[in-house]
Amino acid sequence: MPAKQKPDAIALLKADHRKVEGLFEKFEHTRDEARKKALVLEICTELCVHATIEEEIFYPACKGEIEEEDLLDEAYVEHDGAKVLISELLGSGPSIEFYDAKVKVLSEMIKHHVKEEEARSEGLFAQAKAAGVDMVELAERLDSRKQELLADFKRRSKLPPPETRSFTGHELVQGRPVTMT
Description:
It is a single chain. The protein is an all-alpha fold. The protein has one domain (9-156). The protein has 6 helices and no strands. It has helices at residues 9-28, 33-62, 70-90, 99-118, 124-130, 135-156. α2 packs antiparallel against α3 and α3 runs antiparallel to α4. The N and C termini lie far apart (42 Å).
């Protein structure tokens, strides 16, 4: 029997993308405010963990290796834009004005970001693979850090305020702690 092939970093990151896409789709079809709040918490958790593992592990592994390094700068800025909306959503609720609109805009921002990362030849993932970045070793590090972050968030019973890397002079503040259920 052939040995089971270990997943690579790109497969893990793409799996995260598909999961969040599914959560956004569920949100679009939900009218119940409690369900909306639960879905937004799940979306924000997934996005915070995903952004953290990309920023701490994947992007640094690509720096100096890929052809178009400006893609990395753009990715950090796109993450930071999403973090602003995540902070807004975590500090509010479905009855607040613009809540659904913020979720919709966050969804569109993430779709754009995913499209750029996953573009077949010029995307960040394709360039990293073509550059010979060790995707199996990265997968192990990404998965380990992801599990650590999820355990930490669960232990705290809330998400920490998102931290931006490219924005300066502003502080994101959550309105109130969000309890994870």
